[in-house]
Structures are given as C-alpha cells and as structure tokens.
Amino acid sequence: MSDSYAHLLLIEAEDLQWRAQALCAQTDPEAFFPEKGGSTREAKRVCMACEVRAECLEYALTHDERFGIWGGMSERERRRLRRAQAS
User: Fold this and answer.
1) From CA 18, how far away is CA 25, in angstroms rounded?
2) What does each C-alpha distance from 28 to 23, 33, 46 come to in angstroms?
3) Tens of pLDDT along 37-62?
4) What pTM did the predictor assign?
5) What angle do CA 32, 35, 39 make, to 5 degrees?
6) Long-range CB pairs of 14-23, under 8 A, 24+ apart, other chains included
7) DSSP structure string for 21-64
8) What pLDDT does 78 receive?
9) How far apart are CA 15 and CA 28, in angstroms?
C-alpha cells in the first residue's frame, strides 16, 4: 500500500469518527429509513438530541445521500437546503 493511499484511508477514517458518537447507532435503524409516507418524527427526535448532528448532516450533503434521515433532515429537506445554499 502506498503512503498516499494509506494517508487517504486515515483521513477518511478520521472524518467518520463522529459516527461512533451518533445516537442513531444505538437506535432502531428502521426509524431513520421509513417507508414512503411513513413518519420521520421518531428519527428527528433522536437527531435533535444528538451531539454530532451537524457532522451527520454535512456528511449527507457532501455524499448526496438520497435516502433516510441524516442530521435531522429528510431527503426532501436536504434537497431544499442544497438549493437554498446554491442560490
């Protein structure tokens, strides 16, 4: 493994350390990926109490996550936020 590749893996691992602190990791994952028309209330309630919510939302926006609740926002809400940021 080249030094530059190892460095990139280390950076990526450090960037994802917030996941270990995420409250969703201790919660039923189905709440964060409701079926179409299903309630997002429980997932958003967990997110509002999570100390890494901002990192989670940034990850979802950066990686164009299309499904689930990330950082307390649904895909539709994230799409709206991206449009507002682009304006």
Assistant:
1) 11
2) 10, 10, 11
3) 899 999 999 999 999 999 999 999 98
4) 0.79
5) 65
6) 16/59, 18/52, 18/55, 18/56, 18/59, 19/52, 21/51, 21/52, 22/50, 22/52, 22/56, 23/47, 23/49, 23/50
7) G-GGGGS-GGGGSPPTT---HHHHHHHHT-TTHHHHHHHHHHTT
8) 96
9) 24
Query: In sequence order, what are the beta bridge partners of 73?
Result: 70
Question: What stretch of H or E contains 9?
Answer: helix 3-15
**pLDDT grade, residue 19 (50/70/90)?**
confident
Task: Please state, in angstroms and rounded to a whole number, the distance separating the CA atoms of residues 77 and 31.
Answer: 17
Helix (H, G, I), strand (E, B) or coil at 70: strand
Burial class (CB in 10 A: 0-12, 13-18, 19+), 63: exposed
